[in-house]
């Protein structure tokens, strides 16, 4: 629903498929009416690995990065600056690992579908990866990485900062 509404624009500015929903409840009703409950879950095959990979990257890199800056004596052990530096490095790792899944999910969510709910552009997660890679190159999977970092970077830094402070308590 979110992706349908965010992609929607005026017809003279439109890029890609337009779903033309009037509001959130209208989008839910329209998707459900046309495709049932499964239509509300289209694209989940890209979203679930996105969260798993992003969380793994976040947790795996934070402590290592924080320890690394402390070992180099850039910041003192336990300092808030070391935590922020670790969070920034972790934010980069999250953006790098999650962006391909964001691109895939967005393509799967927003593609036009047949009356039975089958995508007209991609047959599924793997087909989407293959098509993007072959048509746009591997960097096609990283479209929007700057915007992804601007969103996830601060979120990662703040989440890990507060997590680290709460853990100390």
Automatic annotation (TrEMBL):
The keyword Transport applies. It is found in: Mitochondrion inner membrane. Solcar repeats lie at residues 1-68, 78-169. Coiled coil: none annotated. Its main location: mitochondrion. Belongs to the mitochondrial carrier (TC 2.A.29) family. This is Solute carrier family 25 member 34. It comes from Bucorvus abyssinicus. The lineage of its organism: Eukaryota, Metazoa, Chordata, Craniata, Vertebrata. The gene is Slc25a34.
